[in-house]
Amino acid sequence: MSQIIPTQMKRMLDDGSIIDGSPVDEVTIDPVVRGYISDWDAVEDLLHHVLYTGLGWEIGNEGNILFTDPLCTPKANKEQLVQLMFENFNISGFYASEQSVLSLYAVGRISGCTVDIGHGKIDIAPVIEGAVHHIGSRRFEFGGTDLTNFLAQELGKSNPQVNISMSDVEKIKEQYSCCVEDELAYQKTLYSCPVEKHTLPDGQVCFPDFYDSIDL
């Protein structure tokens, strides 16, 4: 069984109630920023939800677990994760492997070059005979969140009368954006797409125009 679970979380009060009346951007937590864990308490809560609710683990019968390490993961973070899993989740076995190596294993290869494009970073890593060539690896701190910020700027220019939160911008990006193969396909898609209007949760309507298209 596989699941894709967003890592953004909502802050709650000490009594377990949800904070109401505040903008969404002010009550959300991003425990992972640019590929690095920034809030270990939030990560623990997220893992508890994923493992016990999402995957159906039972307390007292947790078993073994495999983690993938993104490129450039600090040694201290790896050690803290191992400690967290054994002390707080009572696992019986822990194994970690580098993300780029497992990506190649998934397609039946042990050598190659992997490109991992994520929410906050892009990792490029050559793998030789199952081992990452770290000297030749590169991390670029650019990802989906930067596209969201760019789209927010453009939507603000074309819809100055509409107050759009970053969470709404994220939904607009996921619903309407696309990736094309080359410049010709980009131009064809750009001028063949109908004008869309998007209704926000508060009833406001915004119109992303053609100039909101992102050309990288």
TrEMBL record:
Transmembrane segments: none annotated. InterPro entries: Actin, ATPase_NBD. PANTHER family: ACTIN. Belongs to the actin family. This is Actin-related protein 7-like. It comes from Trifolium pratense (Red clover).
